[in-house]
């Protein structure tokens, strides 16, 4: 899963006008101000046993608690979750 939230840059300038077909003179700079993730995922698949957060490079970083429900599972994503994979294996991080 790829989790996206609303993001804006710390500074943003578009000529003298608002956004609507104007040339972008300055796209801003870091740090970007991204909203925290606020999401619960429910998947009807009883084979899933674990979920993991991936870092920006796609490496497993940490295990996320999975709650079993009838015929599947539910996950409350942590506020910093951007990339998540689910697995049929028990909780383990390979990295």
Runs with pLDDT <50, length 5+? none
Shape: elongated
How many domains is the backbone divided into? 1
| Beta-strand segment tally | 8
Helix and strand run: EEEEEEEE
Rg, please?
18 Å
> What is the spatial order of strands in the main beta sheet?
3-7-6
Helix and strand layout, with pairings?
Layout: E1 7-8, E2 33-34, E3 40-43, E4 50-54, E5 60-64, E6 67-69, E7 72-76, E8 83-87
Antiparallel strand pairs: 1-2, 3-7, 4-5, 4-8, 6-7
How would you briefly describe this protein structure?
The chain is mainly beta. 0% of the residues lie in helices and 33% in strands.
Short descriptors:
95 residues, mainly beta, three-stranded antiparallel sheet, elongated
Explain what the structure shows.
By secondary structure, the chain is an all-beta fold. The chain has one domain. It contains no helices and eight strands. The protein has strands at 7-8, 33-34, 40-43, 50-54, 60-64, 67-69, 72-76, 83-87. It is elongated. The two termini are 19 Å apart.
